[in-house]
Design a protein that fits this description.
Length: about 325
């Protein structure tokens, strides 16, 4: 069943595996080797080299023990780079470290719970194909941010895309509901003879797995692997019994278009709402939906509408 994340145990086991497979820090960049866009690929590989060099300078032993290498690596992507040799309280934001650590815990929980539920045949009716497309869109968005240059805002935006995408996928897979049901299952199993009764009711035949969901979980692990290599390697080995490292697999470049897009709604060039609309929506449909969302701001006013396809819709009060 689901247990709390123990980063020290995970790092110990992964280090043993990497030593056996002769995986070193530089191999993390191998996930980008097959990417066809040269500008994006080179930017991503250069970022991996920067992470390797920077963490040697700024990672401190007490922080590694408390949070683990993955959390600190994610922090380097998401926040301002700490100063070498400074007391960690002076240069690391503790609340942001906690946030990165909690995100890794939620990601681990999502992967483990989804895999467990899939083994029970609970995902047969889930629209996994659409979720796989969303994962492809996340992948492309991350690479586009990295290609803009190795600056804190670009690194931050790349990780923000992943975090936001993971939260959306977690809701679509109903991970919270599944965790609750798993806890109820544990309580039921504590009742004498409950396991035998449940096995009798369920029968001996194993429920079918959704193979597409297995592929989705692999894609999500690969997506986070360059930024949290230890945790993703451990989950890769635990769930999919692979003989080789996750960094021998590499990102599979797929051109998937998003079904939905976010469109800012502005009044006098100031954003008031952000719409979720279909990428196929017409200007008239978008304008009508936007007017409904900001109707109070437009009451009894004359205005002109500026629409930039897939960018913004701006109501300019006359």
């Amino acid at each position: 069943m689901l247990t709390p994340m123990n980063h020290r145990e995970i790092e110990y086991n992964v280090k043993k595996f990497w030593d056996a497979e002769k995986i070193i820090e530089k191999n993390i960049a191998d996930v980008f080797v097959g990417w066809s866009n040269g500008t994006e690929k080179n930017a991503a590989i250069n970022l991996m080299n920067w992470l390797e060099d920077t963490q040697k300078e700024v990672f401190q032993e007490d922080l590694l023990l408390d949070y683990g290498a993955d959390c600190l690596r994610l922090y380097l992507m998401f926040e301002k780079t700490p100063e070498p040799n400074d007391t960690w309280l002076d240069t690391w934001e503790e609340c942001n470290l906690e946030g990165c650590y909690k995100f890794l815990g939620r990601f681990r929980r999502m992967i483990l719970v989804a895999d467990y539920a899939n083994g029970l045949g609970l995902f047969q009716s889930l629209d996994v194909i659409r979720m796989k497309k969303k994962a492809c869109v996340l992948q492309r968005s991350v690479m586009q941010h990295l290609a803009k240059g190795n600056t804190m805002p670009n690194r931050h935006n790349a990780i923000a895309v992943i975090m936001e995408g993971m939260n959306e996928l977690q809701k679509e897979m109903r991970i919270g509901e599944l965790v609750t049901s798993m806890h109820s299952h544990e309580i039921a199993m504590a009742v004498p003879h409950a396991q035998k009764q449940m096995e009798t009711e369920r029968g001996t035949q194993e429920p079918p797995r959704n193979i597409e969901l297995d592929e989705l979980l692999k894609n999500l692990l690969l997506l986070l692997a360059p930024f949290a290599p230890v945790l993703t390697e451990q989950l890769w080995q635990q769930l999919f019994n692979n003989d080789s490292s996750i960094f021998r697999s590499g990102w599979k470049e797929q051109y998937a278009e998003a079904d939905m897009m976010k469109l800012p709604v502005q009044v006098n060039a100031k954003t008031k709402k952000v719409l979720d609309v279909s990428v196929k929506a017409t200007r008239e449909e978008i304008e009508e939906k936007a007017k409904q969302e900001i109707s109070l701001l437009l009451q009894e006013k004359e205005y002109n509408v500026i629409y930039v396809p897939k960018k913004i819709i701006n109501f300019v009060i006359i």
